[in-house]
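WARN retry 2 of 3 for item q-0093 after timeout on previous attempt; input resubmitted unchanged.
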Amino acid sequence: MSLKTMPILFFNLGGEMLYILDQRLQAQKIPPEKCSKVIHDIVNTMIANSFIEELFKPQVIYSRRAMRALFDRLAHSSIMRLNTNSMDKLFDLMTMAVKYQVSLCQRPQEILFVTFNHLDALMKYCKEDKELHGMTVKLFNDFVSRYSQLTPGQFQLLRSTLLSYFQDQHVRVSIFLKDGLQNEKGRFILPTTGNVPLGIEVPGCIRIHKEPVQTKSFPLPESHSYQAFGKIPSIELEGNRATNLGKNIYSSSTTKEGGKQSASGTGKTKRLEASDSTAELSLLANLLGSAPPPSNALKIDLFGDSYCEMEPAKEAGSAPVRTENGCIKVDVRRGDHKTLLNIANTFDSLDVKDKGSVSKGEDLLSLMDSLGDE
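OK item q-0093 returned
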């Protein structure tokens, strides 16, 4: 397990969260000044100096429950207030998007350039705020100095740690289903054609050697279409990362872009049918305390227009069911809220309520400390 995975995971998830929030706030016709304030407040909390120092320390990757708690607090560090259902869907979509990107990386080092695409987006969101933009540039330079010199083996360990974190997460997302990137079981459909990794020769030729020279060569029948990797990715500020992974896929109606961030050539998939309240209910969300909403709090139902319907790969039962690993599934359509609250009340030891007038960065840092002790 790599001890350098946390910053990569956090800022890839955070970048996806900003993409989603930006698109949904605009779709719901929230005034531009409030949209900008929400994004700036969240970025300001993400890159607070005390928080960044703690994040970059070598450490074991957090559990999914702890990461969910961290991003719940991060989302509510702005004037925006999300209901539980919206926060659940937001976190699931963030998770599945980053899982898809990591799965599609052709070589372990590409994860760094996916992260750079997310950091580039942070800088674009904050370009009007010179101080905040300067902080994001400093963050980018920190990433370059800490990660650009890692060996291929270290990147492979980092990628393995990320894939272990995402293992067994198969939430079906409508935007992926409609574009043929996910099957009905919630598993991604990866492309079998397209560019080969950087430095790899395009397959299709057999060579026969007799020491010390080549004596014969002949081509293989073409069964798939492959192309050489075109550009060398840049680690410079605002450079060309040579990949679309990590860019905003919600700015257009489709994620298919010539196989760069798509599963072209795959089979047909059925569109996710609309249903009421089929998203998984997160038990932890009801346990998290949050600051009293300010008078200008922006309360929204983030996915109220079914833009991003989700459901677990397996349908929940008609009543609370205890699984083999001790988890309890609750079907919210049957009004099992009392059961859920009873379960939630057993977790009184988890206290993430605001304390005093500490800054947002320090508040997030204290939450990290409390979750890290679990």
